[in-house]
Specification:
This protein is α/β, with parallel strands linked by helices. It has one domain: 2-enoyl-CoA Hydratase, Chain A, domain 1, CATH 3.90.226. Helix content is 38%, strand content 15%. It is built from nine helices and nine strands. The protein has helices at residues 37-52, 110-116, 144-147, 154-163, 169-174, 187-199, 203-217, 221-236, 239-250, and strands spanning 13-18, 21-26, 58-62, 99-103, 106-108, 120-124, 128-130, 167-168, 180-182. The chain has a six-stranded mixed beta sheet with strand order 1-2-3-4-6-9, sandwiched between helices. Strand 2, helix 1 and strand 3 (58-62) form a beta-alpha-beta unit. The two termini are 29 Å apart.
Length: 259
Protein backbone atom coordinates (compact mmCIF):
# COMPACT_ATOMS: atom_id res chain seq x y z
CA UNK A 1 0.00 0.00 0.00
CA UNK A 2 1.48 3.36 -1.00
CA UNK A 3 1.32 6.57 0.97
CA UNK A 4 -1.38 7.92 -1.36
CA UNK A 5 -3.59 4.91 -0.60
CA UNK A 6 -3.82 5.74 3.11
CA UNK A 7 -6.02 8.59 4.27
CA UNK A 8 -5.40 10.49 7.45
CA UNK A 9 -7.96 9.33 9.99
CA UNK A 10 -8.98 12.41 12.02
CA UNK A 11 -9.92 10.11 14.89
CA UNK A 12 -6.27 9.00 15.21
CA UNK A 13 -4.84 12.47 15.88
CA UNK A 14 -6.50 15.54 17.40
CA UNK A 15 -5.16 19.05 16.91
CA UNK A 16 -5.95 22.11 19.02
CA UNK A 17 -4.87 25.72 18.64
CA UNK A 18 -3.55 27.44 21.74
CA UNK A 19 -2.71 30.86 20.40
CA UNK A 20 0.51 30.46 18.40
CA UNK A 21 0.91 26.84 19.63
CA UNK A 22 -0.48 23.77 17.88
CA UNK A 23 -1.20 20.80 20.15
CA UNK A 24 -1.01 17.47 18.31
CA UNK A 25 -2.46 14.66 20.40
CA UNK A 26 -2.29 10.95 19.52
CA UNK A 27 -5.71 9.38 19.94
CA UNK A 28 -5.65 5.59 19.96
CA UNK A 29 -5.88 4.77 23.67
CA UNK A 30 -7.03 1.17 23.27
CA UNK A 31 -3.68 0.42 21.58
CA UNK A 32 -1.61 2.73 23.81
CA UNK A 33 -1.33 5.04 20.80
CA UNK A 34 0.54 2.43 18.75
CA UNK A 35 1.19 3.81 15.29
CA UNK A 36 -0.58 2.27 12.30
CA UNK A 37 -0.78 3.57 8.73
CA UNK A 38 -3.79 5.81 9.45
CA UNK A 39 -2.00 7.43 12.39
CA UNK A 40 1.13 7.99 10.31
CA UNK A 41 -0.96 9.78 7.69
CA UNK A 42 -2.75 11.81 10.36
CA UNK A 43 0.51 12.81 12.03
CA UNK A 44 1.95 13.83 8.68
CA UNK A 45 -1.08 16.03 7.98
CA UNK A 46 -0.91 17.62 11.44
CA UNK A 47 2.78 18.42 11.13
CA UNK A 48 2.23 19.81 7.64
CA UNK A 49 -0.23 22.21 9.26
CA UNK A 50 2.34 23.21 11.89
CA UNK A 51 5.03 23.68 9.25
CA UNK A 52 2.92 25.56 6.71
CA UNK A 53 0.77 27.87 8.85
CA UNK A 54 2.72 31.10 9.45
CA UNK A 55 0.51 31.88 12.45
CA UNK A 56 1.79 28.79 14.29
CA UNK A 57 5.17 29.21 15.96
CA UNK A 58 5.57 26.12 18.14
CA UNK A 59 4.16 22.60 18.48
CA UNK A 60 3.34 20.18 21.29
CA UNK A 61 3.15 16.44 20.72
CA UNK A 62 1.12 14.55 23.32
CA UNK A 63 -0.37 11.14 23.88
CA UNK A 64 -2.95 12.40 26.34
CA UNK A 65 -3.21 11.70 30.06
CA UNK A 66 -2.36 7.99 30.14
CA UNK A 67 0.23 6.88 27.55
CA UNK A 68 2.42 8.74 25.11
CA UNK A 69 3.00 6.04 22.49
CA UNK A 70 3.79 2.31 22.52
CA UNK A 71 5.58 2.59 19.17
CA UNK A 72 4.81 0.77 15.94
CA UNK A 73 1.71 -1.38 15.74
CA UNK A 74 3.55 -4.67 15.13
CA UNK A 75 0.42 -6.35 13.75
CA UNK A 76 -0.87 -3.65 11.42
CA UNK A 77 2.42 -1.91 10.68
CA UNK A 78 3.02 1.87 10.61
CA UNK A 79 2.48 2.36 6.88
CA UNK A 80 4.97 3.85 4.48
CA UNK A 81 7.27 6.74 5.33
CA UNK A 82 5.84 10.04 4.14
CA UNK A 83 7.52 12.37 1.69
CA UNK A 84 7.88 15.29 4.08
CA UNK A 85 7.99 13.56 7.43
CA UNK A 86 9.70 10.22 6.98
CA UNK A 87 8.70 7.43 9.37
CA UNK A 88 5.49 8.15 11.26
CA UNK A 89 5.26 11.38 9.28
CA UNK A 90 7.49 12.99 11.91
CA UNK A 91 10.94 11.61 12.69
CA UNK A 92 12.56 12.42 9.35
CA UNK A 93 10.99 15.87 9.10
CA UNK A 94 13.36 18.88 8.87
CA UNK A 95 11.29 21.07 11.21
CA UNK A 96 11.74 24.83 11.34
CA UNK A 97 9.55 25.26 14.43
CA UNK A 98 10.28 23.93 17.93
CA UNK A 99 8.45 20.85 19.22
CA UNK A 100 7.77 19.99 22.87
CA UNK A 101 6.88 16.38 23.75
CA UNK A 102 4.44 15.78 26.61
CA UNK A 103 5.03 12.23 27.87
CA UNK A 104 2.76 10.29 30.20
CA UNK A 105 2.91 6.53 30.77
CA UNK A 106 4.74 4.55 28.10
CA UNK A 107 7.08 6.03 25.52
CA UNK A 108 8.35 2.78 24.05
CA UNK A 109 10.05 2.00 20.76
CA UNK A 110 8.77 4.40 18.14
CA UNK A 111 7.16 6.39 20.94
CA UNK A 112 10.55 7.14 22.42
CA UNK A 113 11.81 7.90 18.92
CA UNK A 114 9.06 10.53 18.59
CA UNK A 115 10.35 12.09 21.80
CA UNK A 116 13.93 11.89 20.49
CA UNK A 117 12.78 13.81 17.40
CA UNK A 118 11.41 16.59 19.64
CA UNK A 119 13.35 19.52 21.07
CA UNK A 120 12.13 19.54 24.68
CA UNK A 121 10.58 16.73 26.75
CA UNK A 122 8.16 17.17 29.67
CA UNK A 123 7.23 13.96 31.51
CA UNK A 124 4.81 12.79 34.15
CA UNK A 125 6.44 11.18 37.19
CA UNK A 126 5.30 7.67 36.25
CA UNK A 127 6.47 7.92 32.61
CA UNK A 128 8.68 5.14 31.28
CA UNK A 129 11.07 5.31 28.33
CA UNK A 130 12.16 2.19 26.50
CA UNK A 131 13.54 0.75 23.27
CA UNK A 132 12.31 -2.88 23.36
CA UNK A 133 12.79 -3.68 19.67
CA UNK A 134 15.46 -6.35 20.18
CA UNK A 135 13.07 -8.28 22.44
CA UNK A 136 10.81 -8.65 19.40
CA UNK A 137 13.58 -9.54 16.95
CA UNK A 138 13.67 -6.16 15.20
CA UNK A 139 15.77 -2.98 15.41
CA UNK A 140 14.82 0.57 16.28
CA UNK A 141 14.24 2.03 12.83
CA UNK A 142 12.89 5.54 13.53
CA UNK A 143 16.07 7.28 14.61
CA UNK A 144 17.08 5.79 17.96
CA UNK A 145 20.15 3.96 16.60
CA UNK A 146 21.84 7.30 15.97
CA UNK A 147 19.86 9.74 18.13
CA UNK A 148 19.54 8.00 21.51
CA UNK A 149 23.15 8.77 22.46
CA UNK A 150 22.73 12.50 21.78
CA UNK A 151 20.58 13.45 24.82
CA UNK A 152 21.49 10.30 26.78
CA UNK A 153 24.93 9.12 27.91
CA UNK A 154 26.32 6.63 25.41
CA UNK A 155 26.32 3.65 27.78
CA UNK A 156 22.74 4.33 28.88
CA UNK A 157 21.67 4.48 25.25
CA UNK A 158 23.48 1.21 24.55
CA UNK A 159 21.90 -0.43 27.58
CA UNK A 160 18.41 0.56 26.47
CA UNK A 161 18.97 -0.50 22.86
CA UNK A 162 20.67 -3.81 23.67
CA UNK A 163 18.61 -5.00 26.67
CA UNK A 164 15.23 -3.54 25.77
CA UNK A 165 14.76 -2.54 29.41
CA UNK A 166 13.03 0.81 30.06
CA UNK A 167 14.15 3.61 32.35
CA UNK A 168 12.06 5.79 34.63
CA UNK A 169 11.27 9.46 34.18
CA UNK A 170 13.60 10.25 37.09
CA UNK A 171 16.45 8.38 35.40
CA UNK A 172 15.76 10.06 32.07
CA UNK A 173 15.72 13.44 33.83
CA UNK A 174 18.98 12.79 35.69
CA UNK A 175 20.58 11.77 32.38
CA UNK A 176 19.51 15.05 30.77
CA UNK A 177 16.93 13.70 28.32
CA UNK A 178 13.79 14.87 30.15
CA UNK A 179 13.72 18.62 30.72
CA UNK A 180 10.99 18.70 33.36
CA UNK A 181 9.12 16.19 35.52
CA UNK A 182 5.58 17.08 36.59
CA UNK A 183 2.74 15.35 38.41
CA UNK A 184 1.06 12.57 36.45
CA UNK A 185 -1.61 13.98 34.18
CA UNK A 186 -0.01 17.43 34.01
CA UNK A 187 2.57 16.87 31.24
CA UNK A 188 0.40 18.16 28.39
CA UNK A 189 -0.56 21.40 30.17
CA UNK A 190 3.05 21.97 31.25
CA UNK A 191 4.32 21.32 27.71
CA UNK A 192 1.82 23.84 26.33
CA UNK A 193 3.06 26.38 28.87
CA UNK A 194 6.64 25.78 27.74
CA UNK A 195 5.60 26.09 24.09
CA UNK A 196 3.78 29.34 24.86
CA UNK A 197 6.96 30.68 26.46
CA UNK A 198 8.83 29.83 23.26
CA UNK A 199 6.09 31.34 21.07
CA UNK A 200 6.23 34.59 23.07
CA UNK A 201 9.67 35.20 21.57
CA UNK A 202 10.58 36.53 18.14
CA UNK A 203 9.81 33.68 15.69
CA UNK A 204 12.61 34.53 13.26
CA UNK A 205 15.16 34.45 16.08
CA UNK A 206 13.72 31.22 17.53
CA UNK A 207 13.71 29.46 14.17
CA UNK A 208 17.21 30.67 13.29
CA UNK A 209 18.44 29.40 16.65
CA UNK A 210 16.76 26.01 16.17
CA UNK A 211 18.18 25.75 12.64
CA UNK A 212 21.72 26.40 13.87
CA UNK A 213 21.43 23.80 16.64
CA UNK A 214 19.80 21.22 14.37
CA UNK A 215 22.41 21.69 11.65
CA UNK A 216 25.15 20.76 14.11
CA UNK A 217 23.33 18.05 16.09
CA UNK A 218 21.51 16.44 13.16
CA UNK A 219 24.38 16.74 10.72
CA UNK A 220 24.96 12.97 10.76
CA UNK A 221 21.34 11.98 10.25
CA UNK A 222 21.87 11.05 6.60
CA UNK A 223 24.45 8.42 7.44
CA UNK A 224 22.37 7.38 10.44
CA UNK A 225 19.35 6.58 8.27
CA UNK A 226 21.53 4.61 5.86
CA UNK A 227 23.01 2.54 8.69
CA UNK A 228 19.53 2.01 10.14
CA UNK A 229 18.30 0.74 6.77
CA UNK A 230 21.25 -1.65 6.56
CA UNK A 231 20.52 -2.99 10.05
CA UNK A 232 16.82 -3.34 9.29
CA UNK A 233 17.50 -5.24 6.06
CA UNK A 234 19.82 -7.65 7.85
CA UNK A 235 17.22 -8.32 10.52
CA UNK A 236 14.36 -8.76 8.06
CA UNK A 237 16.31 -11.46 6.27
CA UNK A 238 16.70 -13.48 9.47
CA UNK A 239 14.54 -16.31 10.81
CA UNK A 240 14.57 -14.55 14.17
CA UNK A 241 12.59 -11.68 12.64
CA UNK A 242 9.71 -14.00 11.75
CA UNK A 243 9.95 -15.76 15.12
CA UNK A 244 9.78 -12.43 16.94
CA UNK A 245 6.57 -11.46 15.15
CA UNK A 246 5.02 -14.90 15.74
CA UNK A 247 5.89 -14.77 19.42
CA UNK A 248 4.37 -11.31 19.71
CA UNK A 249 1.13 -12.40 18.06
CA UNK A 250 0.97 -15.56 20.15
CA UNK A 251 1.92 -13.71 23.35
CA UNK A 252 4.74 -16.09 24.27
CA UNK A 253 8.51 -15.86 24.76
CA UNK A 254 10.45 -15.96 21.52
CA UNK A 255 12.65 -18.95 20.72
CA UNK A 256 15.63 -17.37 19.00
CA UNK A 257 17.76 -19.33 16.54
CA UNK A 258 20.46 -16.74 15.90
CA UNK A 259 20.13 -16.86 12.12
Amino acid sequence: MSESDVRADPARVITERHGRVLLIRLQRPAKRNAIDAAMTAALDAAFDELDDNPDLWCGVLSGGRHNFCAGTDLIEGPGESTIRGGRYGVVGRPRAKPLVAAVEGFAYGGGLELALASDIVVAGRSARFGLPEVTHGVVANAGALFRAHQPLPLNIAKQMLLTGRPITADRAHSCGFVNEIVDDGAAERSAITTAEQIAANAPVAVQATLHAISTVVRGGDGQGWLLTSDAEEKVRNSTDFQEGLRAFREKRPARWQGN
